[in-house]
Design goal:
The protein is of the alpha/beta class. It has 2 domains: 2-30 and 312-409, Aspartate Aminotransferase, domain 1, CATH 3.90.1150.10; 38-310, Aspartate Aminotransferase, domain 2 (3-Layer(aba) Sandwich). The chain is 38% helix and 17% strand. It has 15 helices and 15 strands. It has helices at residues 23-26, 35-47, 59-71, 85-102, 123-128, 132-135, 153-156, 172-180, 206-216, 238-242, 269-275, 295-310, 313-329, 360-371, 393-409, and strands at 2-6, 9-12, 17-20, 78-82, 110-114, 144-147, 185-190, 220-224, 248-251, 263-267, 337-343, 346-351, 374-375, 377-379, 382-385. Helix 2 (35-47) runs antiparallel to helix 12, helix 3 (59-71) packs parallel to helix 12 and helix 13 runs parallel beside helix 15 (393-409). The longest helix is centred in the first third of the chain and has 18 residues, at 85-102. The structure holds pyridoxal-5'-phosphate. Pyridoxal-5'-phosphate binds at residues 84-86, 89, 118-120, 191, 195-196, 224, 226-227, 252.
Length: 411
Amino acid sequence: MLVEASGMYYRSGDGREILDGTAGLWCVNAGHGRKEIASAVAAQLESLDYAPSFLLGHPLAFQFAERLADIAPPGLDRIFFTGSGSESVDTALKIALAYQRAIGQGTRTRLVGRERAYHGVGFGGISVGGLVNNRRMFTTLHGVDHMRHTHDPSRNLLSKGLPEHGAELADDLERLVELHGAETIAAVIVEPVAGSTGVLLPPRDYLKRLREIATRHGILLIFDEVITGFGRLGSPFASQHFDVVPDIITTAKGLTNGAMPMGAVFTSRDVHDGLMQGPEAAIELFHGYTYSGHPASCAAGLAALDIYQRDGLFTRAAELEDHWQRSLLELQNAPHIVDVRAMGLIAGVELSSRPNEPGARGYQLFLECFEKGLLVRASGDTIVLSPPLIIDRDQIDRIAQTLFDIVRKIT
Ligand SMILES: Cc1ncc(COP(=O)(O)O)c(C=O)c1O
C-alpha cells in the first residue's frame, strides 16, 4: 500500500520511504506532490468544474491545445483530448479510418500493429497490441495484422545505445502490403520504444524506414507515445528524438504528470483538414468522451507543462542518459542477468526465467526491492524502470546498487 508521495519518494502503509523507480506507472515525470498542479486543479474546480465539449468549449482546453502544439513535432498541431492512453489509442485508430474514408480511400479499413506491443486495454488497443495475455480472453477486431517485434537477442544483447541490427524488420510492413494490398491498409501503429513488454529499443534506422514505407503506400503512421511523450527520452516526444515525424501521436500519463486522468491525440494538419471538410453544422467525426478536455485535467496539464518547461525536464533525460546507462549496464556482471536495455530515463533489466516458472524471479525481485525501499515494476522477468525525470545521480546509483545487491541474493 502506498499512502503518500513527495518528490522522488512514496511513503508505504507501514511508514517507510520508497524511492520511486517507475514514476508511478510511467507518468509522474515531474515528481510527486507538485503544489502548482494541485492548486491549479483546485482553482479550476471552483471556477468551472465541468463543461461539455460537444458543440461547446471552454478557454482552458484551447489554451492547453495551443501550448501542446508549440512543443509538438512540426505540423502535428491539431489535438483531440481523451481521458486515458487507451482512449487515445482507440481515438487515433478511429481518426485514421475516418480520414481515409473522407479522402476517398474507403477501402483502407485494415490496421497494422506489432507483436509484443502494448496499446492499452480498449478493443482497438488490444487488437493492434501484441501481448497474448491481453488478447486471449477477449475477442479482437478483425482486419488487423501484425508486424514482427524488433527484439533480437541473438544479435543485440547488452547494446549501449540503440541496437545495431534489425532496421530491415521495418520491411515487414512491405510484406503485409504485398499480402493484403496497400489499398486495404489505413494505418500502422507502433510504440517508438516498446515499454510495457519489457523495454524494447528500436533498432537504429528502423523508425525512419517504417516512415518511408508507410508514406510510399499511403498508410498513416501512428506513434503511441503514451510512455515516451513528455521528456522520457530527453526531448518532448520520441518523434523529435528519433527525428521521425508520424501522422498521429497518442499521449496520456505525463500529459498531466499523472495527477489527473487525461490523454491527447496529436494529428497532422493533413489528417485534420482531410477529415474536417463538412459544412459548419456537420459532425465529421462521431467520436468524443464526456471527459474530453475536462477543465480540471486541462488545468493540471497546463501546470505540468509549466513545470516541465521551467525546470528543463524535457531535456533532463538526455543529460542523465550516459550515467543511467553506465550504472545499469554494471548489472551485467550480476547473476541471472540476460540483457540490459537503457536509453533516456527508461530501462529494461531482463533476468533469466526459472525453469517452468516464468515471471517468478521478476516478481520476487519486485517484492524484495519494495522491502528495501525501491519501487520497480516487473514485466514478466524483466524489471522495467522509468523514474521521475527529477531523479539525481545518487538516486540512479542507489537504484542500480539495490538491484545489484538483490539480484545476487535471489534464487
Ligand atoms: C504505449 C501505451 N499505450 C497505451 C497505454 C494505455 O494507457 P492507459 O493505461 O492510460 O489507458 C499504455 C499504458 O501503459 C502504454 O504504455
